[in-house]
């Protein structure tokens, strides 16, 4: 006789795989649309932007004007991504406060907001952030 727990798990797994595949395809399509939009904006000049839908936050880092030289060059944005083990406390960076209750955080800014290890965006790089984590890009 078949174990009901195994049968339910197997059925659930098939359903879950289908749901994950559907979400990945939907995510990939949204990323493609954002990438097309970003490419159009880059033709007009420096194009750094943030865009959020109900689930994912997209950011493109392109180029920006450097105050010291007046030159337009990359990086346009910086990011700081890290797990946050103190989910009961707020996170502070310059004038930004992130409320408690999260497991991971990704901050994106035009300049580093602290002495932490902020990573510059590569010129034209687009990242997607979901639940505080940078989402791997699907080829």
Topology:
Blueprint: H1 4-42, E1 49-52, E2 57-61, E3 64-65, E4 72-73, E5 78-83, E6 91-93, E7 96-98, E8 104-109, E9 119-120, E10 125-130, E11 133-134
Antiparallel strand pairs: 1-2, 2-10, 3-4, 5-8, 5-9, 6-7, 10-11
> Into how many domains do the coordinates divide?
1
The radius of gyration over CA amounts to: 19 Å
Secondary structure tally, helices: 1
The beta-strand count equals 11
- The sequence of SSEs as H and E is HEEEEEEEEEEE
Strand order of the largest sheet: 1-2-10-11
Strand percentage? 25-35%
Question: What global shape is seen?
Answer: flat
Ends apart, CA distance between termini? 43 Å
Structural class per helix/strand content? alpha+beta
Describe the biggest sheet?
4 strands, antiparallel
The parts where pLDDT drops under 50 for at least 5 residues are: 1-14
Oligomer: single chain
Task: Determine the mean pLDDT.
Answer: 79
Structure, explained:
By secondary structure, this protein is α+β, with helices and mostly antiparallel strands. It has one domain. It has one helix and eleven strands. It has one helix at 4-42; strands at 49-52, 57-61, 64-65, 72-73, 78-83, 91-93, 96-98, 104-109, 119-120, 125-130, 133-134. The strands form four sheets. The protein has a four-stranded antiparallel β-sheet. The protein has a three-stranded antiparallel β-sheet with strand order 8-5-9, with no helix packed on it. It has a two-stranded antiparallel ribbon with strand order 3-4. A hairpin with a 6-residue loop joins strand 3 and strand 4 (72-73). Mean pLDDT is 79; it is low at 1-14.
């Amino acid at each position: 006789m078949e174990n009901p727990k195994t049968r339910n798990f197997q059925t659930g797994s098939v359903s879950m795989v289908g749901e994950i595949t559907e979400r990945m395809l939907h995510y990939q399509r949204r990323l493609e649309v954002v990438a097309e939009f970003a490419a159009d904006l880059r033709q007009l000049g420096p194009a750094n932007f943030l865009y959020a839908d109900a689930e994912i936050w997209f950011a493109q880092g392109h180029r920006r004007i450097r105050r010291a030289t007046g030159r337009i060059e990359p990086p346009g944005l910086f990011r700081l991504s890290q797990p946050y083990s103190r989910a009961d406390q707020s996170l502070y960076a310059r004038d930004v406060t992130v409320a408690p209750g999260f497991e991971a955080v990704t901050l994106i800014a035009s300049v580093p907001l602290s002495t932490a290890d902020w990573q510059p965006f590569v010129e034209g790089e687009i990242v997607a952030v979901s639940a505080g984590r940078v989402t791997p890009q699907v080829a």
